[in-house]
Amino acid sequence: MESKIERLIKDFHQAIVKVENSAQLDEVRITYLGKNAELNQVVKEMRNLDENQKRTIGQLVNETRSLMTEKINELATKFNQEKLNAQLAREKLNVTLPGKNHPFGSWHPLNLVINEIATIFEGLGFQMVNGSEVDTDLFNFQKLNLPEGHPAREMQDTFYLDEQTVLRTHSTNMTAHLLTQLSEQGGDYLAAISYGNVYRRDDDDATHSHQFMQIDGFVVGKDISFANLKWILTYLCQRLFNVDVKVRFRPSYFPFTQPSVEADIACFKCHGQGCELCKQSGWIEVLGAGLIHDEVFQANGLDPQGLSGLAFGIGVERIAMLKFGITNIRDFYENNLQFLNQFKFYGN
Ligand code: DAH
User: Which atom of ligand 1 is nearest to the CA of 175?
Assistant: First the structure.
């Protein structure tokens, strides 16, 4: 039996030196260590031996098995490593190459403010309309109780395309268009906001520009009151700034509203103490508003007897400057990516 084992070891060595790949290695493994391997035959024959011989042969069998297993595993590891090296050489992956960059676009801060305000008013049932920036003197001024020669036109000097055509000075021109439409349709209720660019000879400082954006809104109906106006504007300020914001209404003058007010919020920087932002007053002006003037109803073909309305005008840049702490209005128009990228994921 010992000689049989010796021969087996010899055969194994002869076989293993010829192995060139893992398929051949598998064959050797099956032949020498598999179920039908000769070594197993030897184990079976050990039955007939006496105790002493059993121990000697048993030990020899175990040693032979470990020797074969060790050699086979050694080769298996070698083949795996070679396979891996070949694969690495084939798939040259350069992990130091920079990845593909897909830059995100983003909303402009002015659009962010418009979207936010539009969402608030849509929630209140307002329609959203976008109007023409080129309009007639009639709709921009006359139908809003700003007849030719009216002193309030002074503050809204603009670009004239011809004697009767202007770049609109406010988005309130859409109120005139929509009221005229309402009268033509015989309607008695409408709530709408409009937004867009407006133009004025007004660029004296860092907070004014000859072109800027406004959102104008109004509600016309049977019993629209000043209380409705106060509620809507307070709600707007709470949504835009914060729930606890203090809002005050100050008497003012606009030709198309009577009474007219300006709405202020308590300065959120100094909480009313007085600082640079609120020009030491403790209050920040946010928008203009009022109840629609009877003259405006009439000028647009509506009967002021049966109707009442509230209206308001919001400067988009002004709100954006307050919300985002921007001090120069020109930052909005220069398309400097360092500026614009700051608003990338705002609100998301
Ligand atoms: N159009 C005004 C302006 O440009 C703002 C304004 C004030 C609009 C009161 C309104 C309003 O609709 O009711 O200064």
Answer: 12
